[in-house]
Amino acid sequence: xxxxxxxxxxxGSSEAINEKDVFKLPKDRSMTYALVFLIxxxxxxxxxxxxxxxxxxxxxxxxxAIVNGEVITIAKVNQxxxxxxxxxxxxxxxxxxxxxxxxxxxxxxxxQEIEKKGLTASQQEISDAIDELKMQLAFSGMDFDEWMQLxxxxxxxxxxxxxxxxxxxxLFEILFSDITVTESELIEFYxxxxxEFFMPxxxxxxxxxxxxxxxxxxxxxxxxQGEDFAGLAMQFSTCPSGQNGGDxxxxxxxxxxxxxxxxxxxxxxxxxxEIVETDFGYHxxxxxxxxxxxxxxxxxxxxxxxxxxxxxxxxNAYLEYIESLRGKADIQIFMS
Length: 336
Hints:
Elements: H1 31-36, H2 46-54, E1 63-67, E2 70-73, H3 74-88, H4 97-116, H5 123-139, H6 144-151, H7 155-176, H8 183-192, E3 198-199, E4 202-210, H9 213-224, H10 229-236, E5 247-252, H11 258-266, E6 276-278, E7 281-291, E8 294-295, H12 298-328, E9 331-333
Antiparallel strand pairs: 1-2, 1-9, 3-8, 4-5, 4-7, 6-7
């Protein structure tokens, strides 16, 4: 079985770059909005699941709030506050327990809506979510079992968490179903914010990663004899990108380990490197395209434009939805 390796810097690294951040799009949302908005990732926060599991527990004297007859405990708010501090890191000093309480109220209102609408998660949907999580972990260079151990969770906990995430996704599919972005809106936003679409020098490359110099040398000989690079990558590469023929898509300086980056940026499109050694193993790199720094064209920026505008509209829809739920709810707050 191939080991899971990837030469992108891990997301946890201070030098890691999110591919969606290539274009620095302006955002004027407040910190409170950022805390309130629920990002639909592969795995929802464990805190929401713990909250879900604790809903049936007896509340004694530590009542922070009652929402439509259901109790939020002070212990839950304290836990939510701790998790928000961890999630937002250097911005933690801006996060108060009042914010954690408001976030907890919103989470409970959403879970009540999920139950009211009868939204469920099938075993197949949970299995699909686990497969998606495994794939994302592999592309981050992490083994699934090691990640489970690191997080201190078992499969039952994970399945419960992903079941809830599937239900969240279904609720937001309903909420966001009418959201559209027109071509004219994309063009208008692009024309009004061109300076935000600066694109640094970028390279698109594929690679084959193997564990020994001898194997890499043998593969270079086979490529020289006319064998298909992508086919060899699919067959021999130990990097998850191998399933895509070794394609790593476009990347800028700072996204890959230095030895790999230096070799890739030195190549011309269509050319193949000598053996490049890194801590991950031995690479054969093929550069397929290069882009010089400058303002991205509308077509080059389209994906980021759509991502930003849809996200902005979804965030606004979410906030309006939460306000409507709060307007109809019976909310009593006891925590000062």
